[in-house]
Every structure is written in C-alpha cells, then in structure tokens.
Amino acid sequence: MTDLDLAEAKANMVEQQLRTWEVLNERILDTLERVPREHYAPAKYSNLAYADMQIPLGHGQVMLEPKVEGRLLQALDPQPTEKTLEIGTGAGYLTHCLAQLSAHVTSVELFPDLREQAEHNLQRAGVDNIHLHTGDAARGWSDGRHYDVIAVTASLPEMHPGFHQSLSMGGRLFLIVGQPPIMEAVLITRVGEDQWATESLFDTSAPALVGAPVSQPFDF
Predict the structure, then answer these.
(1) What residues form DSSP beta bridges with 150?
(2) Which candidate among 6, 76, 94, 130 keeps its CA 20 to 30 Å from the CA of 66?
(3) Which family does the record assign (predicted)?
C-alpha cells in the first residue's frame, strides 16, 4: 500500500468509523490520526491497519477496531498530567496513543513475545514515557501505585473489582464486560474511598482477558 493509499485509508477511518461512532473529541481524533497504526499491525495485516476490524496478533489476542479504541480513549480522556495503566499491551498501538495523551503509561502484557514486539515498535516510534511489564493481570494489577486512567483492552467474562482499588480519586477505568456475542463497554469512575460510579457506553465484543475469573455453575 502506498503512502497515498494509507493517507486515504486513515482519512476514511476518521470520517467513516470514528466520527460516525461519535468519537468527536478533536484531541483524541488528532492522536489517532498522528500515530501510524500500520507500524503496529503485523506485516501481513498492515494493508488492513485502518479497516473496521479486529487485527489478530497471535495467542488469540487482537488490535481492537479503531472505533472501539477511539471510544475508549474518548471515555477515559487522559490528561497531560495523569498516570495511565494499560492491561494488555498487544502490539503497542494503544499504548502509543495513551502515551501521547497522558504523562506516563504503565502497560502489562501476559505474553512475552507480544511485549517484546510492542517494545520494539514503541522504541522505533521514539515513545519513552512508558514502562512495559510482562505479567498476569487477570485479577487486577497491584504495584503499590494509584492511576488516574486504567484501560483494560480485553474483556472480562464477569465484572470483578480487581482494578477498582488501583484508581486514584476521580480516576477512570474502562472495561468490556460480558460473554459473546454481545458485551458491554463501561466507564467506572472512583468517586469515594469505597464508591465507584458506572456508566454504560456501548455494546461490543472482544477476546476475554486470559485467566479472568468466571463463576462455576452449581452442579445439582
């Protein structure tokens, strides 16, 4: 795909996917236009980097659709002074976007090869306000810090509070909750020491966070 083709695909992404899905925050749109998504998609999918689809990354993981990433970023609205936690680094594309919007990003990836590839992608892009970890965050991530923004990029089959306590006061958490075919994206805001407000955002579907807890049915 030529540079001209990529520019056209990116423009179509913004006008036909993001804006029609009510991603209207110009700061978010500028970030999504500026970060080269094709540099993060696996080589065999680079021509589809701006398509309205999930892009496979291996291990059952995906790059989410651009419109979902746009709504995620718009809902969280990371600010230049805020600290962000990302669960599921993947290829590093959303990590890059979050790093453009916030002061610092801590990102956790379960699979070492995906983390290494993301690190390569982000270093090539010159992104340095990040810290990548390899680890299991299926039940939450407790590193002794509180975060203003938490983005969980895979779904939870069932809501659990593992990430809630890692929010700072006023902090925002994005989750996709439920099981196929339809799941619910929600925004959770910490409004008190033991109080959180939940807002329903949209219906979508995404691969489950590996190892996320699921209640076992009773045997009769």
Answers:
(1) 85, 173
(2) 130
(3) Belongs to the methyltransferase superfamily. L-isoaspartyl/D-aspartyl protein methyltransferase family.
Categorize the per-residue pLDDT at 4 as very low, low, confident or very high, splitting at 50, 70 and 90.
Answer: confident
Q: How far apart are CA 70 and CA 73, in angstroms?
A: 5
- Is the pLDDT at 83 greater than 60? The verdict is yes
**DSSP tag of 123:** H
d(CA 113, CA 90): 10
Q: Please check whether residue 212 is in contact with residue 152, taking contact to mean a CB–CB distance below 8 angstroms.
A: no
- pLDDT, tens digit (0-9, with 9 covering 90-100), for 98-107: 999 999 999 9
Q: What is the pLDDT of residue 217?
A: 60
pTM of the model: 0.95
Scan for tokens 């990102």, then name that residue.
107
- The residues near 209 (Cβ < 8 Å, ≥ 6 apart) are 87, 88, 137, 138, 152, 154, 155, 156
The pLDDT tens digits of the residues spanning 118-153 come to 999 999 999 999 999 999 999 999 999 999 999 999
Do the strands 104-109 and 130-134 form a parallel or antiparallel pair, or are they unpaired? parallel
Calculate the alpha carbon distances from 176 to 22, 65, 120 in Å.
18, 13, 28
Q: What is the spatial distance between Cα 67 and Cα 51, in angstroms, rounded to a whole number? A: 10
SS3 of 122, please? Answer: helix
In whole angstroms, give the CA distance from residue 122 to residue 92.
7
The secondary structure of residue 16, as a DSSP letter, is I
